[in-house]
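Fill in residues.
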């Protein structure tokens, strides 16, 4: 640990692993699942797990913007707040991810949690999701993403940032810092009221625990990379963010990090390929879930029920990999981490993911009833 403290990149990686370990442990314990949250609402009208997701968003939003107010985090140094507003990519990527996570029985985070619990179906999802994400980042899918979904014709440049406070400042001329705190208070406060006004949710400790802990972990992730990992590069003498793939401040997100993990395995002997914060969170989440499964003796091997079941999961995983990279995040990466920055694109991606998942569930229900 002393060596890690003297090396910012190493410190960021180890702390990322520790945070993700807790996330995986708690997500397994509480059955936190964003796909399940949408399914509960669509199929049963149960908002319990959706409120847990929303609570995590509110906690992360408050924590993240409190750090901004205290000068611990510069939100302009993240992938979410870029002035390039690629609206079509957010929508198409979000819809694809929502459809994919429904077919694959869970989002990227849930996939890692299930791998830790012994689910062999999720191992297959992990591999296809990772490869799909990799070729969307810098392969054949990437050419389509950049050439069409992020083309100049479908991209609007806001000039400074795409965060809601920045856009509101341009519209109304109010002080940016004041607007930032006010908008955070309004949105996060509204979410908290919606969550805790429900008596059943207040009495469901697992949902409350999941929301509070996961929101706090996202906040801590921003602090680790944005504060502890920010410093002067001894080689270039320029200020940089150590230990992240983007060389910017990052927090919890799982689609691109799974592809970085596969890239690391493929080019292990390449000295330029190293473990980063994102890669560490992939391992941390899976191992945290595995430890919980061992402690509670809930570890169970689980496989596919039929070739058709396997095919659905492969298609879903491929859509998640493409959609997660195209939308610049998953249900955690955009749905909590991105939204915590108050980025307009993150809200659009989040809503698109939910819409894609909900529509797929409705279609599945219709087909099931038709066949019955």
């Amino acid at each position: 640990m002393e060596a890690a403290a003297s090396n910012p990149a190493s410190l960021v990686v180890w702390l990322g692993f520790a945070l993700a370990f807790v996330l995986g442990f708690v997500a397994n314990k509480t059955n936190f699942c964003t796909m399940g949250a949408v399914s509960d609402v669509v199929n049963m009208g149960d908002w319990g797990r959706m409120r847990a997701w929303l609570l995590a968003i509110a906690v992360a939003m408050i924590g993240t913007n409190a750090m901004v107010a205290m000068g611990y985090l510069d939100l302009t140094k993240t992938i979410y707040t870029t002035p390039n507003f690629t609206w079509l990519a957010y929508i198409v990527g979000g819809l694809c991810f929502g459809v994919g996570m429904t077919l694959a029985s869970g989002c990227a985070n849930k996939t890692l949690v299930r791998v830790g619990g012994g689910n062999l179906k999720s191992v297959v999802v992990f591999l296809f999701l990772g490869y799909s994400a990799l070729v969307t980042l810098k392969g054949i899918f990437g050419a389509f993403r950049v050439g069409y979904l992020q083309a100049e014709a479908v991209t609007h440049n806001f000039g400074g940032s795409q965060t809601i406070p920045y856009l509101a400042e341009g519209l109304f001329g109010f002080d940016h810092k004041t607007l930032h705190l006010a908008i955070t208070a309004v949105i996060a406060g509204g979410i908290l009221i919606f969550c805790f006004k429900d008596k059943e949710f207040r009495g469901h400790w697992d949902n409350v625990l999941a929301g509070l802990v996961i929101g706090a972990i996202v906040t801590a992730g921003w602090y680790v990379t944005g504060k502890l990992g920010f410093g002067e590069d001894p080689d270039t003498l320029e200020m940089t963010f150590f230990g992240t793939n983007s060389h910017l401040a990052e927090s919890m997100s799982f689609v691109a990090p799974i592809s970085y993990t596969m890239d690391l395995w493929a080019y292990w002997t390449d000295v330029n390929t190293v473990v980063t914060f994102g890669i560490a969170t992939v391992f941390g989440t899976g191992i945290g879930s595995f430890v919980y499964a061992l402690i509670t003796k809930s570890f169970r091997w689980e496989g596919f029920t039929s070739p058709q079941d396997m095919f659905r999961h492969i298609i879903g995983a491929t859509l998640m990999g493409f959609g997660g990279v195209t939308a610049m995040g998953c249900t955690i990466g955009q749905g909590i981490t991105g939204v915590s920055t108050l980025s307009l694109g993150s809200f659009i991606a989040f809503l698109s993911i939910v819409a894609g998942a909900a529509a797929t569930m409705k279609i599945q229900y219709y087909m099931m009833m038709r066949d019955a």
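Residues 2-371 form one domain.
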